[in-house]
Amino acid sequence: MARITTRGVDRHFAKHSLSSAKVNPGALVPQSSEDRIRFITHKGNQILLVDATNCSPKQLEEMSRLVPSYVTAEPKGSVLLLADVTGAKLDKKAMELLKPALVLDRPHVKRSAWVGTESIPKVFFEQLKAFSQRDLPSFKTREEALEWLVEE
Q1: What are phi and psi of 112, to 5 degrees?
Q2: What is the pTM of this model?
């Protein structure tokens, strides 16, 4: 187990098994929904990464409850947020929890970018945008999204 302290909270991660073919030795694997939400730095900018890759609807529900506490703890209009939903499974219940979270944190978000939106039903993503009254730009890769987030 590796330990990282984020925002004063100790987070624990398990290291990848070296037997996996697509593994970066020493890379960290999130162990819980809370571990999937963390601040990263890109070109000197702090970005809140919401790593929902391959999440189940239940995990997405949990994350929908957690993300606003990270976002609203930051000054209004300051948060750069990257949500990666690649391979995630979104159902109606998870979507209904995600919608108010997107509204609640809106005043604090400067820019947000999404990756992997093709994994979720298009009608759900369109409903999220309409309900939150936010533009939720979608990108093919995290790198593209990160570059867009930090450009002025």
Answers
A1: -135, 150
A2: 0.76
